[in-house]
Amino acid sequence: TKGTNWLIVGSDSCANLTPAQRQALATGYAAGGRTDTIMLVHTGSQKTTLLSLPRDTYVPIDGHGRNKLNAAFAFGGPSLLVRTVEQVTGVHIDHYAEIGFGGFASMVDAVGGVRICVDQAINDGNAGLNIPAGCQKLNGAEALGYVRSRKFATGDLERVQHQRQFLSALLSKVASPGTLINPFKSIPLGYDAVDALTVDKGTHIWDLLTLGTALRDAGGSKGYTLTVPIAGFANEGAVGSVVLWNRTEALQLFTALKNDQPLPAALVPKS
């Protein structure tokens, strides 16, 4: 398909964390790997689009029937997740990038924390997060809790908004002169970014630089950040509570991305 498409995944892998790090980051001790963050990034002739795919989206998965989207990652890792996303969206994935708990926290700490404004206080023991309302600088552990927390009325739908908000803020901080010209920030960030990311075999360092610029643009006037149009929720027995897409609007959205065309006016996020 036209343009360039990335699938960005945040996994809960704790394989490289010490017991002390797991406790500090409130990651738990679950084995294996799952993903709570799934984003599709499209760049091309139009504005950059950063699109959240809710992890609980109910989709068909090759060899496993219908299940939540993040189950594809648990069943078959990145390859099955990419294949599932391609099948349900019709959009070809050119590149894949994955970041784990420890890598994410390290990148935030490497730039000296990231400033975020929140409308209400958040106290979520499961995510290891307790912050007041208002604007504040989050360190790595707090940032990880912020993008993981689901303690909101709309649960995962509000969480994906926070994930996009924080990603844009982080990349703006990374690209700021204060970070780039300060070797005590830029050099550790470079090492942490390389160690933190898992990418597909065809991805070059220049592709990652292009991705960083695109994500920064998506959070500003040069792009859009949004979630796949949602129709509602359902309970699917053993699978549990799932998210259902608005099929008509989702099809319009993915058709525009696939053909590198402007997003339908009705789906463009209101500024």
Topology:
Layout: E1 4-11, H1 19-25, E2 35-43, E3 48-52, E4 58-61, E5 65-68, H2 69-89, E6 95-99, H3 101-110, E7 114-118, E8 122-124, E9 129-131, E10 134-138, H4 140-148, H5 156-174, H6 177-180, H7 183-196, E11 197-199, H8 205-218, E12 223-227, E13 230-235, E14 241-245, H9 247-258
Parallel strand pairs: 1-6, 3-12
Antiparallel strand pairs: 1-2, 2-3, 4-5, 6-11, 7-10, 8-9, 13-14
Helix pairs in contact: 3-4, 3-7, 4-5, 5-8
Keywords:
41% helix; six-stranded mixed beta sheet; 9 helices; alpha+beta; globular; 271 residues
Element order, helices and strands? Answer: EHEEEEHEHEEEEHHHHEHEEEH
- How would the global form be characterised? globular
Mean pLDDT: 83
Number of DSSP strand runs: 14
Low-confidence segments, given as residue ranges, are: none
Largest sheet: 6 strands, mixed
Give a quick rundown of the structure.
The protein has helices at residues 19-25, 69-89, 101-110, 140-148, 156-174, 177-180, 183-196, 205-218, 247-258; strands at 4-11, 35-43, 48-52, 58-61, 65-68, 95-99, 114-118, 122-124, 129-131, 134-138, 197-199, 223-227, 230-235, 241-245. It is an alpha+beta fold and 271 residues long. The mean pLDDT is 83.
Would you kindly provide a written description of the structure presented here, covering whatever features stand out?
This protein has 271 residues and is of the alpha+beta class. It has 9 helices and 14 strands. The protein has helices spanning 19-25, 69-89, 101-110, 140-148, 156-174, 177-180, 183-196, 205-218, 247-258, and strands spanning 4-11, 35-43, 48-52, 58-61, 65-68, 95-99, 114-118, 122-124, 129-131, 134-138, 197-199, 223-227, 230-235, 241-245. Strands 11-6-1-2-3-12 form a 6-stranded mixed beta sheet, sandwiched between helices. A two-stranded antiparallel sheet has the order 4-5. Strand 13 (230-235) and strand 14 (241-245) form a beta hairpin. The radius of gyration is 18 Å and the shape is globular. The two termini are 28 Å apart. The relative contact order is 0.18.
